[in-house]
Design brief:
Blueprint (H helix, E strand, L loop, with lengths): L1 H16 L14 H12 L2 H10 L7 E4 L6 H10 L5 H22 L7 H17 L10 H10 L7 E4 L1 H15 L16 H7 L7
Antiparallel strand pairs: 1-2
Helix pairs in contact: 1-3, 2-6, 3-8, 5-6, 5-7, 5-8
């Protein structure tokens, strides 16, 4: 059965990827934003992303997104390198805006009876909770490049749109979360693409169909 195969695959990925020292560290329990992100992390583990955003979707399925919603580690590195006056809170706010929008797009594209609908809806709720806790400094004006990104996220201009798979979008979300919230995920390795290569190897495991 296809569903049995998918869940078995997820269980195997959990054994391979979620090992002590291989996943996210325990987050500071006293920081509300870190506690909220810890819940998000638990819902975004690899086997969940593979099962709900790949196995449950048609082959080569994509959704329309803004170019700015393709928010990868290389984008974070480029902004840190090139934007004068950039602070981590600017990247964190950008990450939150991007991924709340992405989850809404995925949710809106799915019928309510789709097997990934409830997962997506629940995940969107977790991100909404993070948004309630996260605070951007009052009176701070973001750098011009960051403001342009925020403005573009609300644009309806056709030239600003592209397509991407839900799985790739949530992969980007998971990886960049660990990079931009360094106080919650204290390791510089999370900002390196090489750190996440093990995920791809685990994803390529083949599980025999029952």
């Amino acid at each position: 059965m296809a569903w049995t195969r998918a869940w078995t695959f997820g269980w195997v990925l959990g054994l391979v990827v979620i090992q002590p020292g291989a996943g996210s560290p325990q987050l500071p329990s006293t920081d509300p934003i870190c506690k909220a992100l810890n819940v998000v992390t638990n819902s975004l583990v690899l086997h969940s992303r593979v099962h709900f955003m790949k196995h449950n979707m048609p082959i080569n399925y994509t959704i329309r997104v803004h170019y700015e919603e393709i928010f990868k580690l290389k984008n974070v590195s480029r902004l840190r390198r090139n934007v004068e006056g950039l602070e981590e809170v600017d990247l964190q706010d950008t990450w939150l805006r991007v991924n709340r929008g992405i989850l809404m797009r995925i949710k809106d594209a799915l019928p309510t009876k789709h097997p990934s609908y409830n997962y997506t809806s629940d995940l969107k709720g977790l991100f909404d909770n993070v948004a309630q806790i996260f605070t951007y400094p009052e009176g701070r004006e973001p750098p011009e490049r960051i403001q342009r990104i925020w403005d573009a996220l609300g644009s309806r201009l056709e030239k600003r749109w592209t397509v991407a798979s839900p799985k790739s979008l949530l992969d980007n979300c998971y990886h960049t979360m660990h990079c931009v919230f360094s106080s919650c995920f204290p390791s510089s390795d999370y900002c390196q693409r090489a750190h996440w290569r093990g995920e791809k190897k685990a994803q390529n495991l083949e599980v025999p169909e029952n």
